[in-house]
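ok new one. same drill as before - structure tokens go in, u give me an amino acid for every spot. 350 of them this time. try not to just spam alanines like last time pls lmao
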């Protein structure tokens, strides 16, 4: 009677090629499609319109360098993007999981979304930005910022793939590492700036297939006023708790409030603990504690005379039955806003 293991060794020996050399082992990573760095780079271009369609970058790193008078559109999410030595270019970048870094660029106009944004040794940039952390400029002048305002059908999914929240946008909270006494190296673009006048839509047939809109009411990222001067002393805080329709409810509330003439100042999506709720919601905290375990909350700050009453009316009429925190009065609203956003900024390290 034969031995199983001896038979197996015999079979393995017979399967070896002549000459006694064993076939190299095949591993799963050997089967992966090889990445060509040139597919994730635009370099040395002049007077061209180029881009990548949804699905063509798929979370890889990307490099843009030494381009002049070019229109560049990355309609996909990526890991990080570096832009070096570019002049007079129009650039759109889909959601970037990590950092976007501009170095030694001038006269460029951009729309982009990222986790971290940094500019060094640049001048005359216009940036419509969505950034989860505080944007940083260094050794740069005449950098102008506006709020990200862009839509195409795949963009919401790309934000998720990049791990970015459309509600975490500190686009106007700029930190200048190299300030000059008596000068301001950065400013905010006019509130009525038309995005398409700065970052026009692509004109090539291939890129026109991406159905882009730059209308404010269609923007994936809510268009906020950020740190612009407030029009009124009255603000209102609304906090929505995690559920199946939280994002849709937040968008609906924004549309209703903006439609009635109020201004969206800022938004935030962040996880809360019981002690955070106690600090922000005060005596109402026990009502909301069971909801905190369901996921992050979304907070919205609205501004304008009558914002508190206007918001309460909309919430009662449209969202009756949906649990939300809404500032009770004009007198308490300012404290509500300060308490929540101070907590949220600390939580997010801003």
């Amino acid at each position: 009677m034969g031995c199983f293991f001896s038979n197996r060794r015999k079979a393995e020996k017979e399967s070896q090629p002549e000459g006694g050399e064993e076939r190299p082992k095949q591993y799963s990573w050997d089967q992966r499609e090889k990445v060509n760095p040139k597919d994730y780079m635009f370099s040395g271009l002049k007077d061209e319109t180029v881009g990548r369609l949804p699905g063509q970058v798929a979370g890889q790193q990307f490099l843009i360098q030494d381009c002049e008078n070019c229109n560049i559109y990355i309609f996909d999410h990526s890991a990080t993007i570096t832009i070096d030595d570019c002049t007079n270019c129009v650039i759109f970048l889909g959601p970037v999981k990590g950092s976007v870094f501009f170095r030694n660029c001038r006269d460029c106009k951009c729309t982009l979304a990222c986790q971290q944004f940094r500019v060094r040794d640049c001048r005359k940039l216009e940036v419509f930005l969505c950034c989860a952390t505080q944007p940083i400029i260094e050794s740069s002048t005449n950098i102008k910022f506006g709020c990200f305002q862009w839509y195409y059908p795949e963009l919401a999914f790309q934000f998720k793939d990049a791990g970015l929240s459309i509600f975490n946008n500190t686009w106007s909270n700029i930190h200048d590492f190299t300030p000059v006494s008596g000068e301001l190296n950065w400013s905010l673009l006019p509130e009525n700036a038309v995005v398409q006048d700065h970052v026009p839509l692509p004109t090539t047939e291939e890129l026109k297939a991406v159905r882009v809109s730059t209308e404010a009411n269609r923007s994936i990222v809510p268009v906020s006023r950020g740190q612009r001067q407030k029009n009124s002393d009255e603000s209102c805080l609304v906090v929505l708790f995690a559920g199946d329709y939280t994002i849709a409810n937040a968008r609906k509330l924004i549309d209703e409030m903006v439609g009635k003439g109020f201004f969206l100042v800022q938004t935030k999506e962040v996880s809360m603990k019981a002690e955070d709720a106690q600090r922000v919601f005060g005596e109402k905290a026990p009502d909301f504690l069971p909801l905190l375990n369901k996921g992050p909350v979304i907070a919205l700050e609205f501004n304008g005379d009558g914002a508190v009453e206007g918001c309460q009316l909309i919430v009662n009429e449209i969202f009756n039955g949906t649990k939300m925190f809404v500032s009770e009065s004009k007198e308490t609203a300012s404290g509500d806003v300060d308490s929540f956003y101070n907590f949220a900024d600390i939580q997010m390290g801003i």
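Residues 278 and 285 are 5 Å apart (CA to CA). and btw The chain has two domains: 37-209, 230-349.
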